[in-house]
Automatic annotation (TrEMBL):
It is found in: Secreted. This is lytic cellulose monooxygenase (C4-dehydrogenating). InterPro entries: AA9, AA9_LPMO. It is an enzyme of class 1 (oxidoreductase). It comes from Arthrobotrys conoides. GO terms for cellular component: extracellular region.
């Protein structure tokens, strides 16, 4: 009996470690939810859901380990909205970010790794600050507890092949340097009906972040006086028509 209880407790611990984290397995487009990793590169943590802590790792490019073949590439129109399901829900607090990288001459979405100075940030979220019921509730993060997340492909994005990178950064223990948790994935897209926007500024992974910047070394619980001034890591968001 004792050993049964010990086993049950150990099992429960494993379950809670897994369910406390999250992955982005399915692409959503025009009402269709595609099977796991059909158009999304299978991530290094697809089974254990582990967070990535190392911001100097190339794994940060697309959260892949390189041991699986790349998936298919979905054709979408510029200006359309695509989404990712969240397996396990976004159960930590922090910003949600989206980046895109364009495949160059003679490259495709499937052939590029995401290495180099190729990424432009297309969206980011900050805490939504309210006074009800208290200023420091979890719901200040717009995607807290989300089971899917959505992003509009910029209407002015040039036609071409792209990686679309979703990233959620968990900050619940980021009061200690290096304790930021990264979750994310890359979808492979062929964007048609594009515009003539000029993607800027470009950044790289690793390289975009440093572990002591204010958006990654922050105590969001005990002594966070100015959530409205939270500085999302990485470059400025690129906006069409600016
Ligand atoms: C970012 O996404 C939000 C919805 O989550 C949207 O309201 C906002 O306009 C987007 N920003 C840009 C630059 O597209
Ligand atoms: C998360 O969302 C689910 C489904 O809407 C809801 O049942 C649950 O209470 C929410 N959890 C939190 C912590 O908000
Ligand atoms: C809280 O933050 C303020 C401003 O950053 C700082 O001066 C103060 O020492 C901090 N207090 C604690 C208890 O960490
Ligand atoms: Cu965690």
């Amino acid at each position: 009996m004792l050993s049964f209880i010990t086993l049950a407790v150990a099992f429960a611990t494993i379950i809670s470690t897994t369910t406390a984290h999250y992955t982005f397995p399915n692409l959503l487009y025009k009402g269709v939810q595609y099977p796991d990793y059909t158009y999304i590169r299978r991530t290094w943590n697809y089974q254990n859901y582990y967070p990535l802590f190392d911001i100097t790792s190339p794994v940060l490019q697309c959260f892949t380990s390189g041991s699986f073949p790349n998936p298919g590439t979905l054709t979408v129109s510029a200006g359309d909205t695509v989404g990712f399901t969240v397996s396990g829900r976004i159960v930590h607090e922090g910003p949600l970010l989206f980046y895109m990288a364009k495949a160059g001459f003679r490259q495709t979405a499937a052939s590029i790794s995401g290495a180099g100075n190729v990424w432009v940030k297309i969206n980011e979220t900050k805490p939504v600050v309210t006074d009800v019921p208290t200023r420091l509730e979890l719901y200040q993060w717009p995607h807290y507890n989300a089971s899917e997340v959505h992003i509009q492909i910029p209407p002015c994005l040039p036609t071409g092949d792209y990686l679309l990178r979703v990233e959620h950064i968990a900050l619940h223990i980021a009061f200690e340097e290096g304790q930021h948790e990264f979750f994310g994935a890359c979808a492979q897209l062929k964007v048609v009906n594009g515009g003539n926007g000029v993607m800027t500024p470009l950044t790289s992974f690793p390289g975009a972040y440093s572990s002591d910047e204010p958006g990654l070394l922050v105590d969001i619980h005990r002594n966070w006086t100015l959530p409205e001034e939270y500085q999302v890591p990485g470059p400025e968001v690129w906006r069409c028509g600016v």
